[in-house]
Amino acid sequence: MIALNDIHFRYKKKKQLFENLNLSLQPGFIYGLLGKNGAGKSSLLKLISGLLYPDSGECRVFGYDASARKPAMLQDIYLVPEEFNLPPISLATFVNINSVFYSKFSHNQLQAYLAEFELQEEDKLSTLSYGQKKKFLIAFGLATNARLLILDEPTNGLDIPSKSQFRKIMAASLDEDKIIVISTHQVRDLENLIDNIVVLEHGNIIFNQNIAAISERLAFEYNLAGIPEGEVLYAEELQGRKAGIVKNLSGQDSRVDLELLFNGIIKNAPVINEQFAKLNYEY
Ligand SMILES: Nc1ncnc2c1ncn2[C@@H]1O[C@H](COP(=O)(O)OP(=O)(O)OP(=O)(O)O)[C@@H](O)[C@H]1O
């Protein structure tokens, strides 16, 4: 489990980014971390992986203090960053150098992922496109079998077939011990993949719910004509019509539209959160 307790953090000469931030992430789930540019997603991921230290509070990863960066913790974390510089060596050499840090690294799994992403081990990293480099890091990260896999904008640069391969591979790689955190702007890429949505805004967690609760409480409509105003929680123009989020009064689970949900949360989080107040109380 990962627990962030009362985290305070600011970059030098910048205003406070996180103040009293609390978050808990459980094994067996894929978390989607969403937020506008500058909301604090990458900073939060760096705090979790011990690359940034909180000014106060603590971040515990599988019982370890993340900022201590103990080897036992580090071998159980893999972060695929949004931006990276890879050395001009072959994929195979990169794997030989780096796999030793991960005691559960599987060369067989790596080969299967590389084949899926159509990458050759003898290719030089410097000759790969941005999307191919990203796919290589994702494949390497999965093959580490780290219990915490963090992916910052993983689908950025991936073509359409690679995005669906990515979703398939991610879903298949999750087991009850693993926590996968995916940060992205491309919310549609996470559809049918994530179990929980965490939305950050100006360093605050403004929404944190699981998909099952969302599909039970909210419904996503592409034509709001005829829906009583009191049931509409969020509306936006979509191809000349009004689309939006409504209260789910049908008793049936809805199909969650992550883009509408994200827009609704950013526009009016309290109204959306209100729908979950009873649910939280019940638990
Ligand atoms: N190294 C840094 N030094 C100073 N300020 C930083 C640094 N990195 C990020 N920030 C600031 O912290 C805030 C959060 O940035 P962060 O990169 O965590 O956001 P983000 O949600 O990942 O954004 P994006 O979606 O654009 O990648 C921003 O205001 C940013 O300017």
Automatic annotation (TrEMBL):
InterPro entries: AAA+_ATPase, ABC_transporter-like_ATP-bd, ABC_Transporter_VariousFunc, P-loop_NTPase. The keyword ATP-binding applies. Keywords: ATP-binding, Nucleotide-binding, Transport. Pfam families: ABC_tran. The keyword Transport applies. One of its GO terms (molecular function) is ATP binding. It comes from the Bacteria. PROSITE patterns: ABC_TRANSPORTER_2. Gene3D superfamilies: P-loop containing nucleotide triphosphate hydrolases. Residues 2-227 form the ABC transporter domain. Signal peptide: none annotated. PANTHER family: ABC TRANSPORTER ATP-BINDING PROTEIN ALBC-RELATED. This is ABC-2 type transport system ATP-binding protein.
